[in-house]
Amino acid sequence: MKVTRKQEKVIRHTLEGWRKEGVIDETEQQRLEQNLSVQLFDWQRLSRYAFWIALACAIIAIGSLVADEYLMALLFNFGYLTRAIILALISAALYFWGFRRQNITPEKRYSNEAILFMGVLFTALCLSQVGMALDTGSGNVAPLFLLGCAIYGAIGYLGRSGLIWLFCLLALGSFFGTSTGYASGWGAYWLGMNYPIRFVLFGGVLLAACYLLKPILQQRNLFNTSKAMGLLYLFIALWILSIFGNYDYDIWQSVRQMELMHWSLLFALAAGACIWISLKTDDGMLRGFGLTFLGINLYTRYFEMFWDDTNKVIFFLLLAISLALVGRYAEKIWRVGEGR
């Protein structure tokens, strides 16, 4: 069995623990350890990182192409609708190629996902050209995001691709933000709610839907991505809400920080609830989000309350001490886990 150095260390620790507890004898331990073969170089991780970097470079290249009017005119010297059709055909070909490779060579997971992701990029470009072709000056771009969400959702679901499903959820959030913004005339409030409160509700609904549809999403390997995006929408919105409250920027400048304290408490309660649930269910993702955003909340309040009134030497000294204590505590937990 080929394993990495880290995996070998964990397996040997486990076998040693089982031997001491009498689960296996020394002969069985040696027999199992002889089947371990250390892989000196993690080619799988290199493959994943290489494809990520390649996709990032492709995004930069396509973005540069779109920004260059001369090249766009040279390569796509057509009307918006014709460009959209060409880009749609390219994206459809990429999707067909990616799904065909998934059926023929499912073990080439990273390259298959990279091909599907290129289809996502060309779909986005296609939708931008459709938007320009159908633009009436109303500024309502929400239908394009909804169409993109439907396409990415179908591709991500059929392809069992968490990466493309991530773009589906990003497009869904963009649809919600732009549709409520358009409905409010691009003002600060929609039904009395500014953007942070809207996305607190959006993140909560997305998280609830994620758990309601858990069996279906787990079957397609999409549950963790959905849960992470729901938590991310929820906590980032709560963080912004704890800073600005339900105010627009002009009114917020005259609001005292103490008037926003109830939003900070709500933020802390949400993070605490995540930590509490994670302790009950041993959910590492909930624990990570809860601890991370509880720390962000505390440090945000620290900057808000003490930045103006504290000497900067003392301010950063206290900040350094607190971060060192956090690091020391994290190191202690890590060393206990490593010992186990």
TrEMBL record:
The chain crosses the membrane at residues 49-67, 73-98, 110-134, 140-158, 163-183, 195-217, 229-249, 261-279, 286-307, 313-330. The keyword Membrane applies. This is DUF2157 domain-containing protein. Keywords: Membrane, Transmembrane, Transmembrane helix. It comes from Buttiauxella agrestis ATCC 33320.
